[in-house]
From TrEMBL:
It comes from the Eukaryota. One of its GO terms (cellular component) is plasma membrane. The keyword DNA repair does not apply. It comes from Callorhinchus milii. This is Plasminogen receptor with a C-terminal lysine. The chain crosses the membrane at residues 56-76, 82-101. Pfam families: DUF2368 (PF10166).
Amino acid sequence: MSTMGFFLSKSMEDNMKKQQEFMAANGALQLERQLLMQNEMRQRQVAMQIAWSREFLKYFGTFYGFATVGLTARAVKGKSPGFLAPIIPLSIILVYQYDMAYGTLMTRMKDEAENIIDTEKAKLEMPKGVPTFESIEKARRARSTFFIEK
């Protein structure tokens, strides 16, 4: 009888170990899928931001062209160079939008973000630290109590 109990116990231990291994592998697979999904969502958001910049550049470029021609014509006709002054800030905006849409601004921003993460960790910390399960549950219970009392 003790031999049979030993074999049953051994079999149950083996099954338990296999179940734990399966759960660990399944958890890793689930985490990998979540990370891939989050990265794909981030890529889509960045692509939308770049697409928005390119579309905005078309409209702003048209405005800039008309404004530059009009202001230059007015400055020459009226012999007043002051009409050329708005071209300077408009040019800065145009160059920024071009850099965002087709240049290396996004790469430089990514590089700077990596530098901040590497060298300025303290600036990235959340007030009162990262939320914990306990702090969220405490807030949830307090909120539930608040709504029950009303």
